[in-house]
Amino acid sequence: MQSISEKEKSLRDTVAMPLASDWQLISENPSVLIELNTVLIHALHFAKSKADITFGEIAEQIFPALAVIDNKYPGNGVTDSEGYLTVARFFAINYSPAIYDYLRYYGAET
User: Fold this and answer.
1) What separation, in Å, do the N-terminal and C-terminal C-alpha atoms of the chain show?
2) What is the pLDDT of residues 59-78, one digit of tens each?
3) What is the rounded distance in angstroms from the CA atom of residue 27 to the CA atom of residue 85?
4) In 13-54, which residue ranges form alpha helices assigned H by DSSP?
5) Which of 29, 108, 22, 18 has its CA nearest to residue 72?
6) With contact defined as beta carbons under 8 Å apart, do 35 and 17 qualify?
7) Rounded-to-integer distance, Cα 46 and Cα 61, Å
8) Is the Cβ–Cβ distance between 26 and 76 less than 8 Å?
């Protein structure tokens, strides 16, 4: 059995990538999936590169890039709720569970 800290470390040391079914895209275009996952990988490397990084800095690496992809492939649902859910799940699993709510509701009107 692992401690919570050990489990968190083991999660940070591996990467789980979302599949097309995780993104729940409207289209089956593989280019969209590749571009989306590339954004996540770059943002994850960015997040892990600094000890004092904020959730806002991480989000700024993700969501403007998703908007570009959404404009490139209109009607695919990249910036729909499911897209935000996938981003939040990816970072909760691969970075820190604490970031989930921040990314899940990023930019939401209060």
Assistant:
1) 41
2) 999 999 999 999 999 989 89
3) 18
4) 20-23, 30-48
5) 29
6) no
7) 8
8) yes
